[in-house]
Amino acid sequence: MKLEDSVGVLAGVGPKKLEALASLNIKTIEDLLLNFPFRYEDFARKSVYDLIDGEKAVLIGTVVTEPVVNYYGRRKSKLSFKIKQEAAIVTVSFFNQPYLKDKVASGYQAVIFGKWDDTRKALTGLKILGGQFKADDFQGIYHTNKNVKQSELEKLVRQAIKLGYAALFEEVLPKFLLEKYRLMSYPSAVKALHLPNSETDYHQATRRMKYQEFLLFQLRLQGLSYLDRQEVAGAAIHYDPVRVDTQINQLPFELTGAQSLVLAEILLDLKQPRHMNRLLQGDVGSGKTVIAALAMYAAYTANLQSALMVPTEILAIQHFNHLTKLFGKTVKIARLTSGLKPKEKELLLAAISAGEIDMVVGTHAIIQAGVNFSKLGLVITDEQHRFGVSQRQVFREKGQQPDVLMMSATPIPRTLAITAYGEMSLSVIDELPKGRKPVITRVMRHKDMPKILSWLKGEIARGHQIYFISPLIEESEQLDLKNAVELLDELQLYFKTDARLALLHGRMKNDEKSAIMQAFKDHQVDILVSTTVIEVGVDVPNATVMVIMDADRFGLAQLHQLRGRVGRGVAKSYTVLVADPKTKQGRERLKIMTETNDGFVLAEKDLEMRGSGEVFGLKQSGVPEFLVADILQDANILEVARSDAKLIWQLPNWQEKPEFSDLNKVLTRFDQSIFD
Ligand code: ADP
Ligand code: MG
Description:
CATH superfamily of the domain at 440-596: P-loop containing nucleotide triphosphate hydrolases
Mean pLDDT: 85
Largest sheet: 7 strands, parallel
Bound molecules: adenosine-5'-diphosphate, magnesium ion
Shape: globular
Structural class: alpha/beta
Strand content: 15-25%
Oligomer: single chain
Number of helices: 21
């Protein structure tokens, strides 16, 4: 018996159920048990007299009539009986669960969870809680989908725990920390998160899990900066300021004040015999790419290699073209992506390790084993928030302590940035290039589509280009694709020969993607229908309209990124959010998009509205998704974990001490998992 056992070992899980569970990412018992409830139904018992109409509550009473099942329609049934609580008699009915009849009988003490109907003084039963009920019981509620029901998950978890699987979770935290904070053991915490005996039990379990998650995260993060501090002075990069200036003067535009300032900060860092560890933040469209290019050029004039890592193939292609256009005559630039043929790749890797290539642009293919540089001086990650901590670490280890610049458009608060990236310097581009007009954003309904389309015809006639983003289906790339194809067909039908359309999606091969992006750039395509693959970084200044279908499915940060694809040229630009949000919250979120173009303001608003919404960009900020902890709400635990991690790193060779061996094991496992 081990945690890696397939969930198939549980009774009632056949091939079909296996597949259904896999759709929730539950394949092993470990997955099942680490899939904690996301909220808890509070089963506090109530008196009938305190209930309000529509409230869900638990009633306890004596069954005073024999239960009766009435069948009606096809397969429909109603089980009813009456219970007595104090002086009140309450009718209880359960729909379509005739088998519950055997669970109650006249004279029994019944504990029923249901929904109160105050006019009829009746309870619509949802659940019979049985005999082990305690006054403060609380029931976990899991994320489910159409394939797996709440009650099924619950049963499987119960079964796994009964079989003793929870006990297999090995303790991770050293004893002295468990004692210091009086933390529950790991196995008990896992069990208590699923089946808390009481509210206190649940609180103790979450407290432990939050601390563990934060401590592991902080240990890894601080491991990075610890290595920085330890290292003897990093190499100073003696770039040639005259040649860098020449490049700046040859740009097709003048740098903004903010760009010049930020570039100066970076160049100063390069020159210092100290390690650069800098985060460059700038709202979408603020012109970060050219700063990266100039910093890479500076490294080149010092005879050092540089590398630029980006999250998508499309961006790799775009940045490669951009660098080639700027420096291609003198500098050797290569693109390293996963789509290369083995032979090409082999040659390229040899050239990189021989130092024949000066600049490498690529996706995470850059950090794969086998990629070795001969003298890597500078590494830059674009759209930094898309990479995890371990990926950044590996990237850095490719060089002999290279300087590191991370670029991000996600304006996360400073404290959060430190949490996510560790201690580092910060540069901000807080100014857009001259002549930019704010993007006009409108929320429209699906029924307005005819109006929107006829207006788009006009935009195309004026020589402008359009992005159309198909609805987002988070769980399924396949459905994403289907949606995009359907949208393309509809638009094709409408525009006929008035517009040239093309489709872009994540499943295409690299050269297909590249060809389509190029065609759009060259204005051989008027309307680009796409999934969110173009979300980050794509730059086509002649595109003036961004239409986002079912915009209410996207997070604010994502909408802002998408909107950032337009308004990059001089022409007036628009973003049309097509949605029929059903909730007030949903309407408000979209309204905010129409009120500001400023990512930092959006971030603040999003924080204010927090509760149901995601925190702006947090999901994409590179901060791992914690299972239980919440960076904002549990800030105090995070702080404790942070200082504990610091103390641990200050112990010489802590990894070799027996009390830390389990902790260290888990950390090492984390680091390797990124190569899976
Ligand atoms: P982001 O910060 O979102 O990565 P980009 O680097 O893609 O932004 O720049 C957006 C657009 O602005 C590009 O077309 C770029 O060439 C242009 N650009 C950058 N800096 C300037 C500037 N100082 N003046 C005018 N246009 C600029
Ligand atoms: Mg960019």
